[in-house]
Structures are given as C-alpha cells and as structure tokens.
Amino acid sequence: MKNQTLAILEDLIQNTPNSNWITVETVDKKTIIDNQKLYNDFLIILDGTLHMENKNSQILHFFTNSHIIYHSPFDLGIENQLKIIANTDMEVAFVNREFFLNFAANKPSYMEWLLTSVLRNSSGLCFELMKHDLPTEPRITYTLQSFCDTLDLEADDEEEYVEIPSYLNKSKLAHYGNVSRKNLNEKLDILEEKEEVKRADNKLYIRVVSL
Q1: Residue 74 has what pLDDT?
Q2: What whole-number distance in Å separates Cα of residue 23 and Cα of residue 96?
Q3: Which residue of 12, 36, 144, 150 is 20 to 30 Å from 168, comparing CA positions?
Q4: Long-range pairs for 33-36 at CB < 8 Å and ≥24 separation?
Q5: Residue ranges of the alpha helices (H) in the chain?
C-alpha cells in the first residue's frame, strides 16, 4: 500500500496544473493540524502517526503511514469538535480533492486506491466506537490490540507481545479507552496477572491476537 501511495502521489505532483493543489509538509510532534487545511484537501500520511480526538480529548482513532483523512470536518459541520494531533514528527501531503477526483476519473486504480483507503479507515473508526459497549477489561485489551493492528506493529518475541510506543502513555490510553486513570491502573494489574499485558522498564506490552 505504501509503495502504491508514493507512486500515485508522484504521478499527481508531475501532472498537477497548479502546484498549490498538492503540498508536502513536515509536521512536528504534538502539532495540532489546522482543520482549515482539510476544507478543500484530503491528507495522506507519508511518514509518522497522528490521532483524531474530540473536544473532550477522547481519542477516536489513530492514523499512520499511507492512511488517508478524506472527509472534511467542515463538510460534516464538526470543525470545532475534532482535533488532529501529530504523535510523532511527520511528513504529510495535502491533495486537492476536486483535482484528484477529476484526474482519477480516467484511472480506475486510483479510485480503487482512494475507496479502499477511506473504507479501511471508516470501518476502523466504526469498530473503535463499538468497543465502548465492552466491559472495561476487554475494552482496554481491544483498544491496545486495535492500536497495534492499525499501526501494523508486530511482536518482537516468541510470546507474541508487542511494545506500545511511548507516545501512547497512560494518560492517552485512558482517553483512548474511555476509562479513568485510576481504573486503568487497576485493570492493567488484572490484565498483567492474566498475562494479556506485561510491563517492564516503564514499557507496556500487549499480547496480540488477530482482530
């Protein structure tokens, strides 16, 4: 998917009649991306990870390399209710939606790429919202496993534990799993006893399963 994304972006850059319709930018970690940039454009992540959160700081979904944020908060009427925040230093591209759709009208593979990307993120977000119907323990487990699945993180040992990146600290994990910090600590202790998670050297690991 990543190679296809880079090839499509290169083709678009070479054929755009207006250089302002495609821009590649570096974004520092912790930067809040201006929703105004998504008024006419969609965003492609070339390198790095960001997340979307609501006005209550609840994290809704993570996005990483080759993922797309296509729907404009302005089109949805929620521009003041969502924030898009970089978790790492990033490289992103903003592509004018109208130009892309016109250009891709004669390139079915480009439309398929866009639809596949949008569908993947939309379905991922739906499952993220559905997890809140789960009891707290399985919700925390699902939250961590879903995070690993979204970022394509792989186990680094034979026990199939995956290290959770440091930017998903306990505060962010609580916001992501919609649980209090106190309850999170209590449930992590229980999950560690069940060997579903482990902690070592101030790092958190989750035993991954196929979602």
Answers
A1: 58
A2: 9
A3: 36
A4: 33/84, 33/85, 33/86, 33/92, 35/73, 35/74, 35/79, 35/82, 35/84
A5: 2-15, 73-76, 97-104, 108-130, 136-150, 170-177, 181-193
How far apart are the C-alpha atoms of 204 and 165, rounded to whole Å?
8
Q: Count other Cβ atoms within 10 Å, centred on residue 153.
A: 17
Where residue 90 sits, what CATH number does that domain have? 2.60.120.10
Query: Domain containing 69: what range?
Result: 1-131
> Which of 84, 109, 131 is where one domain is finished?
131
Q: Please report the DSSP string for 154-207 in residue order.
A: ---STT-EEEPPTTS-HHHHHHHHT--HHHHHHHHHHHHHTTSEEEETTEEEEE
pTM exceeds 0.90, yes or no = no
**At 155, is the pLDDT very low, low, confident or very high (cuts 50, 70, 90)?**
confident
- Residues ≥6 apart with Cβ < 8 Å to 32: 83, 84, 85
Of the three residues 101, 131, 161, the one that is the final residue of a domain is 131
144 pLDDT above the threshold of 60? yes
For the cut 60, the answer to whether the pLDDT of residue 108 exceeds it is: yes
Q: Mean pLDDT, the chain, as a whole number?
A: 89
